[in-house]
Structure formats: C-alpha cells, structure tokens
Amino acid sequence: MENKYDKFGHRLALSVSVSVFLVYTLLLYAPLKLYIENKDVLWFNFDATLTVALIISAVALVVFTLICTIPKRFIHAGLCCLVFALALGLFIQGNFLNIDYGSGVFDGSEIAWKDYTTYGAINSAVWAACLAMPFAFYMVFRKEWRKILMFSSLGLVLVQMVILSSLVVQNSNNLNKITYEVTRSGIYELSEEDNTIVFVLNSFDEEYLSQIKEDFPNYEELLSGFTEYDNALSTGSGTAVALPSILTGEVYTKETSYQTYLNNIWEDNTVYSLLNKNGVDTRIFAQTEYFGADAKDDIENIVDYMDNYGAYTSMTKTIYKYAAYTYSPHYLKPYFWLDADTISSYKSKNAYTLNDAKFYSDYVRAGGFSYTDGYNNAVRIYNLDGARSPYTLTKSTIKSINGTSLNEQIYGCFNCLFSMLDDLKSNGVYENATIIITADVGNKEFNQHPLLLIKESGKSEGYETNSAPLSLFDFAPTLLSPLSENYTEYGSGKTFFDFENDATRTRYFYLNTGENADTRIEQYSTRGNADDTEKMRLLDSFYSSTEITDYRLGTSRTFTMDATANMYCVEGFLSTTGWRTPLAGPQAQMVIPIASIPGDAEDIHAYFEIHSISTPSDCIIYANGRQVYSGTINKAAISEGLNFTIPSSLIGNDNTVTLSFRFTDIDDSEMDLELNKRSKTVSFKSFKMYTQ
Fold first, then answer.
1. What is the pTM of this model?
2. How far apart are CA 652 and CA 646, in angstroms?
3. What is the CATH class of 180-305+349-512?
4. C-alpha–C-alpha distance, residues 452 and 200, integer Å
5. To pair with 392 at 20 to 30 A between CA atoms, which of 86, 307, 489, 609?
6. Could you tell me which of 199, 247, 207, 214 has the C-alpha nearest to residue 230?
7. Are strands 194-201 and 377-384 parallel, antiparallel or unpaired?
8. Does domain 544-690 have CATH number 3.90.320?
9. Alpha carbons 530 and 451: distance in angstroms, whole number
10. Taking the C-alpha atoms of 91, 95, 99 and 101 in order, what is their torsion angle to the nearest 10 degrees?
11. 273 touches 298 (CB < 8 A)
C-alpha cells in the first residue's frame, strides 16, 4: 500500500517548501541584499538586478521543485533533505559566519587565504552540521521531519523577507542609480550645411570679457559677426541649478528630489525631442549628472549601457559571483573572488568629463572639426571649465600641475575657442552657423551676470554690443525657434532676439544658498540691469526638509543637492554646491541622532566620502568630546575617504553622536568671520555609519 506521503500532492508540498528556501536565499535574497549593501560600488541599478533575480529564481524554483517531486520514497526524501541542508548552510553562512578578510573584494587585491586556517576549520564544521541536520531529522523524527523541514523553510524565508523589505525601505531614495552617461561620441563632428554651436563656460562673468579684449587686441576680428550682450541674467546659481534650467528652461525648486527633477525635465516633449523629430543631430557634452534617464532618446551621445543585452549578462555574472562568494563556505570562496575589472567591466571608456586641456588636445589630435553630409542640421553644446577654479589652464591651453591664475585660465579657454572659430571659417561653415558663447553663471555677487556672445546664422562681419535685457531662460526657446512655433512653451517663451536694446522686462533668478542645516533656493525678480543686485527682489524661498530624522545605521546620506546629510550640520558647513558641501574655517560640527544601535555593537564605523580638497589641513575629529581621528586631509585622501571608528561606549542613552571637526592649520581667529569668508577646507559628498 502506498504511503500517503508518497502521493504527488505531499511530495510537491515538501519539494516546493525546501526549494523556495534554497532559491529565495541564494538567488533572490542574496543578490538583492548584497546590491543594497554595495550600491555605491556596483554600476548597475536595483530594478535591473531585481528583474534578473526574479526571472532566474522563477526558473530555478520550477527546476528544483521538479527534481525533488518526481522521484518517490527514499530518493525524494534524500533530495529534499539535501536541498534544505544547502539552503540552511547558505543562510547561516551569509548572515552569521562571514568575516572581514581585510581586503580583496571589489578592490582587486588578493586575499591571504592561508592566514585563515582556524576559521576555515570552524566554518567547515558548521557546514558539516548543516548538511547532517535534515538527514538526522529524517532518521530520528520519521513522522515529523516533513513538517520540521516545511515550517523551518517557510519560517526562515519569512525572516529574510522582513530583513530585505526593511533594507529596501531604508534605502528607497538611492537604489536606482544612473546607468546612462554622456559619451564623447561625435564630439568634433559637424554638419556641412547648418550648425548651432554653443559653448557654456563655467563661472565666466561678463566682466571677464574685458580681459579678453586686453589680451587679444584683434578680438573683434576673431569674433567677427558676433554681438556682445552685456545685460544677460543667468537662470540661477550654482551650476546644479543653472545648467539644467538653461538647457531645458525648467528650474529646480526642491519640490522633489534632484534626480526626480532631472528625470522629469528630460522626459518627452522637450526642446530636444522636437529637434530630434525635425532631423537635427543633437549632442550635448556636459557631465552626466545634469541629465535624466530619457535624455538618451534625443541626445545622440548619451547612452544607457543597460540597454545592451551584454550589459545584463555582465551584471548577472557580477552579482551572482559576488553572491556565491559571500554565501559559499570558506574553502570555496577563492573560486568566486572578484577583482575590480569585473565590477566596472561594462562601463564606457568614452565618457565625457570636464577637462578643458584634454578637450583642446583631443581636438588638435583629431585634426580639428570633421564635417559630414550625413545630416543637414547639427546642434553641439559644449560645457567647459571656463573660469572655474582651481585654475590649471595655461595660455597655451595645456594643464599645469602647479596651477596657474584666473587670467591665464581665461586666456587659455579663449585660445581654444578662437582656434575652433578659425577652423569653421577656413572650412566655409562659419557664416551659416549660429554660435553662442555663454556661461552657466557669472562669478561676482550672486553669480548672476554671465558672458553672452551670439553670432547669428548669415552673419560673419562686424562686432556689436547690445544691452537688451536677456535671460538664459531664453536659450531653450532660441534653440528651437528656427524649427518649431512651439518654442514659446519652453523657458521664458522668448528668444534672445525678441528684445530691443532699450527694452525693460521682468527677469527671474534662482539662488542656491544657505548654510549648515539651512539649505534653500531663493527666487528673485528684477527689472534692473543684470549686474545690479540691489534691484533684485526676493520673491520666495524653497527649502530642503527642515525636519531632522533619526539616522539609520548602514544608510548613506548625501551632501549634494538633496542635502539629506546637511540636516545634521550645525556649524562650519557652507551651502551645498549641488554635488558637494564644503566645510569652512577651523571648526565644523554635526549632531546625529541614531535610530537604534545593536546591543552587541562594540564600535560604529564612520565613512565620509570626500569630493575635493580646497585647503589641505591636519584634522582632529571628536565624537561626543573624545578624539576618534587624527590625520592630514589632502588630495591623497580623496580616493580613500575619511574613515574612523566611534566606540559605542561613547554614545549615551539618547543615541546621539556629536562629531566635531577641528582643522588645526586654520587660524582660530577665522571664527570671528562670516562663514562664507572663512577658508574652505574639505568638501564632503556623503557619509555612512555602520556596524560590522
């Protein structure tokens, strides 16, 4: 007579239970948890990882279930015990048994496996126990072993689901990283027929043009056909506010996260989608951080490396090799060791970066611009360093490792531009081209008064000055106006050519400002000249969240435009520039309330990601009054970040950590100055605190 447990339904129930335990642990929970914990290192995003993991898990679940269900009696029982044993070993290894090998994962350095013999023996013994346990249940608890395996499997799956759900919720704001990037594709390629060429120089004030006129006495000949608009107002300051709003006409007012804002302004029905529909080959060369995911649909040189099937293959190999490394026994780990090349293997080697010296040297190496009849109309927008510090550009447009000066930087930048203009002239495409030389922001007062030089198509002689009240919110409509009547729906709805020299208009400007926990964007209006800040009237202020939330260990908080870390800053932190927050003066302080600290945690590890160094300095850090770090913060520290350990014993019952940064090379007398007049030291990008 057939045992009732040999019936298909009973076999299926047990097989599904243990298979779910194994598949969920290794193929779903492991890669997703590891992704969240290492999202700053991995190049692909969470949604892609989740999609692949779900597909692989579904297929594996069917396979394991069939393998365990089809056989009967002892073979069925043995297979179910083996699957449960493997799942249990993986669960314990991944969550409790792993140790810090010191280095080797994600950094390319070899691990000294021979130094871990004792640990290897203990690890092997635990695995042996896991493998033996379900078979022992089968032998000793013959009537109950099925229930033990089924309920244990489902219970441990539930535990992992709770953990994973909590991690997803805690990190929901920064899981889906950017996987698209601006490449150098076609950077010096133009149309033989019709071109719009735009140079957006960083921090180039209108006032700096007087230096160009002094350095290049024949500047009118070099800029033949151009009009100097000396009353232009930028859209805002700094670059994180200004550049996207210049390109699209849409400004950031902190209503959403900064990345959500970027995604929204680059969605369908942008100026560039209309240019694309009209057959214009559009390429924008600026840092990837200023674009949204949909920009790749209309900007020819922006690519998403997740669009390629090979990227998913590379991603799958990477995340599952890391899962295998993390969840396998000690003596199998060397077979799944990861090197640095594996992690970044699919990233483009052709990404555009701000580097004026390289931009010019590559242009010269390419033999100048190339011209094609592959398209009739081309738009090229180049964002360059311009007059932004630190100053490293020489007059010959090469980089000096010892630094230069503002005047040399300005000269070197225009030396590059004049060479390109001569190229256009000698190849007969200059007259038909529309050329705009402008800046994202100025570099005085509110940084509101940028350079603006325009050569209209059809002009190639003379040099004029015009004081029409222009705004860089006019840029997007100007770009679109030759091709579509819908240009009025973008930016200001007006073009650069809609205003007379003596016109009066109301213009708007958005200033990113604040300090410490106070981060805001101020909206101004003016009917005065662009260089007159006294005529600018404050209309509104848009704040980052002022509510201080408890910090959850293991989460990353940023000092970027979203300012999720700035809420803890109480002294010495300037306003975020968009991608970093500089510290200024001899002292800075953060007060961080921690949501919860594990009772068995001896130490809390702190990591601050450094963006840049303005003034190298010896630094001492105190946590709740006790020194926890002493060292020199210089350019060498940028790659390593700022790392230190806080003993849990220093933290009181309120779970609050006060971090005090003391820069000993900065004179204490600077504390009497306003914050924005103190010496800048280090700029932070993010911080993270965690326990082992």
1. 0.85
2. 12
3. alpha beta
4. 9
5. 609
6. 207
7. parallel
8. no
9. 11
10. 80
11. yes
